[in-house]
Design brief:
Layout: H1 8-14, E1 31-36, H2 56-66, E2 70-74, H3 88-109, E3 114-120, H4 122-135, E4 146-152, E5 162-165, E6 189-192, H5 208-217, H6 221-238, H7 243-258, H8 262-282, H9 288-297, H10 304-315, H11 320-338, H12 357-371, H13 383-389, H14 393-396, H15 399-415, H16 420-427, H17 454-477
Parallel strand pairs: 1-2, 1-3, 3-4, 4-6, 5-6
Helix pairs in contact: 2-17, 3-4, 5-6, 5-9, 6-9, 6-16, 7-8, 7-12, 8-11, 9-10, 10-15, 11-12
Length: 478
């Protein structure tokens, strides 16, 4: 993203500063005040001059106090957690990349400009990472250009070099503290976290599974919550599959086509499609490798979660979209070819239709190649073909997959499991993150003896820090 050059007058007018008739009351320096909103509070096409989300009133405080000398910028970025096919990690990475570009562009345009950086929730996660990089000498601007960093509900809470404001958290951030600390920015970074807010204050002894998941993912609470819910969906789906039947049907399809029994091939393809449907439905949203890691962390005495993790590792090697397209093609073509005829039709005597003998036989050959064992070493000339075959139907007819199916069936029968998803919910529930309103109530969360809320305190602290820098700058000039 290219940094958008905002004039001070535009920024301040938008936030109720000098445009509202309030002039700066003290000596000041020119500042660029970057705000990174939280999940779902903004998007990549948002207007950066428009205050939004939990930090809007903080920005207005700066604008009221410092007028034309303060440019306020609300970072446009993806701001997603797990919806729309994008992950929290993708979203946070876009925030850091966009913010880095904006800061670098502004610093290049005005070498005397000073900066503040603030973030809330996912925005605090990104802002904290950015501050750690700047403090370590690897950021987009030098550390001596940064006046202050304010982090609200930071999933990386507990990072060395942060100054805690308000009641102490009961634990650390769900994504774990940043190991490198704040470096040269130590003492200029403040962190506010409500003790009941599990995004930034999770006691991993009391919530060991959620804590482990957060550590493994190294991501925010939204992603942890989604990963748990996905694991619940997947464990429910994989226990409903007839593994032996699925493998047998996939193996029979190319044989039925080869001998010309197209009506039977149509019927079998329909059964395979029905069995694959839950996985196709999940394919756009499920990362099976990640789900396997999550299930592997679930403390389940029945063994279902552990076997489920092994199943997910196999499913991770299956291209469900391509597999479903292929089987669906078989179902459609065999219906067109044999639908008007009796029980059995030879490929050599297809009825008149738009489907040719070659089309049906070609599908049969492709099915046969995909079902074939791909574990043998390919020559240089065969590598591309082996890569195309690997990870498709052969995985679903493999001995490993069939044995996992048997093991799942044994566990379900022995333990009399009627609701597999409940095992995960009993062990760890993502709803812990959404209980109460601690994560969204910082406008009422009191942080000091004067009764100021987190939002009021943060706005006042940033404005005062800019005042102090202005006074020091005026003293130096004298």
């Amino acid at each position: 993203m290219t940094g958008i050059a905002l004039t001070a007058s535009v920024a301040v007018t938008a936030f109720g500063g000098a445009g509202a008739g309030v002039a700066a009351a003290a000596p000041t320096v020119s500042t660029f005040n970057l705000f990174i909103p939280g999940t779902w509070e903004t998007d990549a096409a948002a207007d950066p001059t428009h205050a939004t989300g939990a930090l809007a009133e903080v920005a207005r405080s700066i604008a009221r106090e410092h007028g034309d000398s303060a440019t306020v910028y609300f970072l446009p970025y993806m701001a997603r957690a797990f919806d729309n096919g994008r992950t929290y990690a993708d979203s946070k990475a876009s925030a850091i990349a966009n913010a880095s570009q904006v800061l670098a562009d502004r610093a290049k345009a005005d070498p005397d400009l000073r900066f503040t950086i603030s973030g809330y929730s996912q925005g605090a996660d990104a802002a904290g990472d950015l501050a750690a990089a700047i403090g370590g000498g690897e950021g987009p601007i030098p550390a001596d250009k940064v006046l202050a960093v304010g982090l609200l509900a930071d999933p990386g809470n507990g990072t060395a070099g942060q100054k805690v404001i308000g009641p102490s958290a009961r634990g650390i951030g769900i994504a774990d503290p940043r190991p490198q600390g704040m470096g040269e920015l130590s003492g200029r970074v403040t962190s506010i976290c409500a003790p009941a807010d599990l995004y930034c204050s999770i006691d991993k002894r009391r919530h060991p599974v959620l804590g482990k998941i957060g550590t493994v993912l190294s991501e925010g609470a939204e992603e942890v919550a989604d990963a748990v819910e996905t694991a619940i969906d997947v464990i429910g789906a994989i226990t409903r599959i007839d593994y032996a039947g699925l493998g047998a049907d996939i193996g029979r399809l190319p044989q039925l086509i080869g001998v010309g029994d197209l009506r039977s091939a149509h019927r079998v393809a329909g059964r395979v499609n029905a069995q694959l449907r839950p996985f196709v439905k999940l394919a756009d949203t499920v990362d099976y490798a990640k789900t396997a890691r999550i299930l592997g962390l679930i403390p389940d005495k029945t063994g279902l979660a552990k076997v489920g993790a092994r199943v997910c590792r196999v499913l991770d090697r299956v291209d469900f979209e391509r597999t479903a397209d292929l089987v669906g093609g078989v179902q459609e073509l065999t219906w067109s070819a044999a639908g008007a005829v009796g029980a059995r039709v030879g490929a050599e005597s297809l009825p008149e239709s738009e489907v040719s003998v070659e089309e049906v036989l070609d599908l049969g050959k492709e099915l046969a190649s995909l079902v074939a064992d791909t574990s043998v070493d390919a020559s240089d000339d065969e590598e591309a073909d082996a890569e195309a075959r690997a990870g498709l139907l052969s995985e679903l007819v493999s001995p490993e997959f069939k044995e996992l199916g048997k093991e799942l069936a044994r566990i379900v029968t022995k333990q009399a499991i009627t609701d597999p998803a409940s095992l995960i919910r009993d062990a760890v529930t993502a709803k812990d993150f959404y209980s109460g309103n601690a994560h969204t109530n910082y406008a009422k969360f009191v942080v000091d003896e004067l009764g100021r809320s987190a939002i009021t305190w943060l706005g006042g602290w940033l404005a005062d820090t800019i005042d102090t820098a202005g006074s020091e700058s005026e003293g130096d000039s004298e």
